[in-house]
Design goal:
The chain has three helices and no strands.
Length: 104
């Protein structure tokens, strides 16, 4: 009898402890906050930087693995490096404009 009681108590404890982890969390709201114009512009600059860096990284990987010939690599790498530099410069200029208390 006590073995059945102990097993039932153990199952009840496991259920009580696991219940919060098994429930789907309820969001307070599904509405996203609107970004301010400067935050939106900074986010666009960050995305542009990430796209340019990703394209350059992919080109360099394909060149190292032999997928792209040396001539094609040389034809494409300059433009991609300029894109990366332009994105980084634009991001740097936007950081200079932001007040110091807003920088992260």
């Amino acid at each position: 009898m006590s073995l059945v009681f102990a097993a039932a108590l153990a199952v009840a404890c496991v259920v009580v402890v696991a219940l919060p982890f098994l429930r789907e969390p309820e969001p307070e709201s599904d509405v996203l906050d609107d970004l301010e114009e400067d935050e939106r512009a900074r986010l666009e600059l960050l995305e542009e930087r990430d796209r340019a860096l990703s394209a350059l990284k992919e080109l360099e990987f394909e060149h190292r693995t032999g997928t792209i010939a040396d001539e094609d690599y040389r034809a494409q790498v300059g433009a991609l490096r300029r894109d990366v530099a332009a994105a980084l410069q634009a991001l740097g200029r936007s950081e200079e404009v932001r007040p110091a208390n807003e920088r992260k």
